[in-house]
Amino acid sequence: RAPEPDPQNESERASKRLRVIQPAIPEPGPNSTAEDDPILSTPNQNEDQPEYPFGLNVIADFPYLSDPKIPWGIKWEFGRLASQRPVKVSDALLADLRGTHADIARKLRQVVRDHSQKRDGTRSDKPKPWSYAARESAVTAPWEELDREDQAWDRGLDEGIGLKMEDGWYGGKVQFSVKLDWDEKRRAFKAHLNAPTTGKSTHFGRAFHSRSCITMRITKNALKQPKLKRYLKACHRFFGRDFYVLDAATDKVTLVHANARRPNHDPLTETPEEGSGIQWMLNYLNPMEFNQQQSVSKWRARFQLYFSDTVPGYRVELGRVLEQDDLELPHEGAKCPSEKILTDGCGRISLDALKSIQSNLKLDHRMSAVQLRFFGAKGMALAMLGPPFEPEEPGDIILRPSQIKIHMDDRYVTDEAKLTIDIVRPAKISTPARLSAESIQILSHNGVPTSVFLELQKKCFEEDFGAMVDWPEDKPLVKLALAVAQTQNVVGTRRTRLARGMARARGLTAKSWDEVEEVQDEADPEADQRSSAWWPDDVSGCPSSLAETCLVNLQAGFRPESLPYLRQKLRILLDDMLSRYVDKFKITVPYALTGTLVPDPIGVLKLDEISISLSEPMEIDGRKVMILRNPAKQETDVRKASLVQGFGLTPSEQEYLLCFQVKIVNCPRLHQLKDVIVISVRNTDRSLASRLAGGDYDGDKAQVILEEALVKPFRNAASDTALEVPQCVKDSFKSDNGSIANLLAEKQQNEAKFAARLSEILLLPLNVYPGEYSIFHELAVYMHGLGHQEAIRVGHMFTEGLDGSKTGKSVKEEIQRADAQRYRRFGRVTWNRGREHRKKAESNEHHNIAQHQIPRDRHLPPFVMDKLREAGEALHRDILQRFDDRIKRDTKWKSAQTEVVRQWARAGRLRLKQKECDTSQKEAIEALRFLIDAMDVDSSEVARDCQPLDHWMQAISRAINQVLNRGCGSYAADLSLIYGAIVSISAKHYSLVNGNGFNSLDIVSRQDALRKFSVEFAEAVPLDDILTPLSSAELALLKASCAYSLSSKHAMTTPQFAFSVATRDLCHLKALSGPSQTVSQEFIDGMSLHSGYVEDFE
């Protein structure tokens, strides 16, 4: 049986198991030299070996840029621009490149133009009134951040590591990246430098400066080349510095500067062999000598700890780093299987440290646990409860052996970077929860009727989309605006955009920076500046995302029934959201929550009990509960239990216990652990987390479902057969995964062979796609049923292969071929052929979408996912039809506007006819007649919101009065000038958006193309070119109103043109039609409608 801690003496025993980690005295190595460079290096080479045994790829290296006064970021950006536009090297050019990043970057493009071999006549002193958006630049531009890193680096105080500056600054936030492609004509690889940008911060970047790390993304075409690995093994030179691959993923590698050293690094500590290649870096980050028991695959995977998305949270003194044994069940062999480790991946952290982390991250909620990286360890750290619940421990953090992935070289255990806790994300509870497609299938297999899912699906669609298809006719559309903001999380998206690489650590997103980073097409080297994905255009005020576009127009007072532009955007948004809901089978469970799993720290919970203490009260609609963890593949991955309420707690600290046997438990000793799911450590066969799809406690999340309609009919799997990996699955994998000890033995025998083997190991994950067996599992479940042995087998094939890059396992070729022959011909299972799948199928002529009919066992009932797909598509069509019907039935806003426009046009013509005989006025009269004709809206058209149009009409009316009363045509001439300039811009805009390929561009390229028109529009018709005395604000409004007028009749104008170039001014004109308040953009971005206010308003 598992150990059952005695509350009275468990703390004493735990204290005895604590060990203080102490440093060893480092042994000095031989002398090594250092280059005169901001980053110190040790260029010693072993004379018996070539300097570059696998070759040298010179990607970007200009000898004339070796001047140390030219900053690294400027070298990078200059190299990116000059590679497409060759320059003439001169002393004047080098003088223009010296200085700080911030000073040089602003003029760098013009410097390249001025010194290019093909001059385009652009003058460097030409004013550019509309430059890169200030707000966007302040968040995304890397130049000031690089200057600050350089300054901190020069001071030599390790300030870039973080937690040393009053404002909380830390380094490593700038991303340098390269796109590697295959040039078919040259039959060679070609690397394209991308513009640097701010983004995630990594441990490596903070320790060694942002410039010491480069991400190389590899195109699909390059991945297919058999020479790829040979190319990547070589040294890669960038601006005089040598970089090597240290980490790899499916389609990218991470390059590090081989000679990167921190300013306070002592070269005397290095050994002779560490002077070449990346040997010193390997020993500093993940030394082989101290990790010989690891497999080579796991050793390689540990480098990811240094390149993951983290922020510095707390610095620990070495004497306050403790180690404590894991709680383990009895097992065979020296190494305990992970499923028998009851505390697998979870240590402890002091309350003072947690409070400091909360302050550093500027969190507005209390934390009980945090996911972290520290001292070669990873996983969760759960709060120490302290007296009277636990004795006070003499440390800030307690690590368990299951957390420690890298044993450090004794020379570096006092390194400040290694003693800094890097935060991945805080633990928190979120509610409600959404069911995944896998969990729906398990619930259905285990007894939940299909009708329950259909009812929940219908309720989810109605709650999320009802307000978007039904709004009042006579009130501002605050409820519609709230629905758009909430369903698309607009404010949260804006916060994530501002937080950039800190978003995950602050709990704003569950995704890492690499998951949300936008993949961009190759940049136009002639472009003045690239925008950042999904940022609004500061010149025009036009948002980039559909949701923000709809929200901005609704907030100004526009209505979809009267503004075709808004109606079109809103319908596209609605259609996209509905498609995602249908394709992803999004079903919201109101009475459910998602939280992080942690083990009971003091052993008071009984067998299979789970404690949840919530910071905010949650209404409980039943006592039966289920618990699950994604990805759930087997029938045993969802468990049913009973919920009992704890006693003696205040309503805000209500504690609930989840038991497989109904037990009323009073556990006040755990109520301090807020917003985590605390699990008993008294199981007798395996940890409860491992029962949930093979989970552990290093950051895994689980869902607790209290929805009675789901819980009541559910029954647990009849047996635990599916928990164990079948022997046939174990036999289906091969492993060439030796130990590090064996690899070091190879090194002693053959140094060259060892170097080649090491390069192969570092590239193991490249071009490996483990997801195919997930598709096979979907097919097996559909064909045979979830409990069938084949479905169980394929499910375990997926889970076993998922971590192949860590375990070194790969499916045997004969097994892979047999499974591929069995399943590939079907493509995706029918219910999972959504919009994105169909798009891919249409773009790939060899894509197999439905070549064969997928057979299903005739004894099986109708499949739940087929029913949900069918019902979801019906709901999709119904909601879109309700939107169209709502537009059609509202005629109040149409007739009034068409009549206003037509009456004004008729009146203008009658007044002008009176003066047509006057020759001195004919030119002005003809110009005005043309403008009036352009405004004549056919009453059969659906009229637009006329408030912005009124501004232009009033201007023409004033011009008519001027001609009639004073015989002066200057105002009419100015209006004609404005009209002509805007027609010209709209025609170019029309050609762009209706051209081939525009919609297939990435978001940044589309933004850049459209922003050119907003700049051209803003610069069109300067104040100096018009005769009429107008302010710049009046002229801007006049141009916006004119652009708005073109969409009524002009053939070469798109409906979105006016809003693409003048959203802010058009919304301002519209808001003036009623009570309004001017608010700056910084305040607007953080504002959200309160649901209570909307209810009161309605």
What does this 3D model show about the protein?
The chain has 41 helices and 27 strands. It is globular, with a radius of gyration of 33 Å. The strands form five sheets. An eight-stranded mixed β-sheet has the order 1-11-15-12-14-13-16-10, covered by helices on one side. Strands 2, 3, 4, 5, 6, 7, 8 and 9 form an eight-stranded mixed β-sheet that branches. Helix 25 (740-749) runs antiparallel to helix 26. Strand 8 and strand 9 (252-257) form a beta hairpin. The protein has 1098 residues and is an alpha+beta fold.
Note the main attributes of this structure.
alpha+beta, 41 helices, globular, disordered N terminus
Number of H- or I-type helical stretches:
41
Q: Strand order, biggest sheet?
A: 1-11-15-12-14-13-16-10
Strand content: 5-15%
What can be said about the biggest beta sheet? 8 strands, mixed
The percent of residues in helical segments reads 25-40%
Span between termini: 61 Å
Averaged pLDDT:
82
Q: Given the C-alpha coordinates, what overall shape results?
A: globular
Q: Report the count of strand segments.
A: 27
